[in-house]
Amino acid sequence: MRAVLLALLLAACDKPAAAPPGSPPMSDAEKDRATEACKTYVDRLCACAGTVPALKDTCDLARAQPEAVALHRDLLDGKGPKGPLNPEERELTETSLRKIVSACVKGDAELDPKTCPRR
To answer: Is pLDDT above 80 for 73?
Structure first.
């Protein structure tokens, strides 16, 4: 599980492309939407994996996404080992978080509504 989380974090740390330099910090509402988007996706995907065996591995991998979101939120909220982030670290962490959320939203959109209905 840690290896998957590490892989997600490394993949999310490619090129920063989300917020322009000097942008204001993410709002609590945006962080809450990030948490909800990934949780909803994983819940829906893993519920489907119970009836569509081909989705089991995808479900197992996706379970790390809400954990990655929580880790990023903790860092952004100053709960990391170094305490509050400097502006550059904050921007990089927010960019990484937005990439994880983008993957959750994209994965959710790609689920077949016939076999994986929305709840």
So the answer is: yes
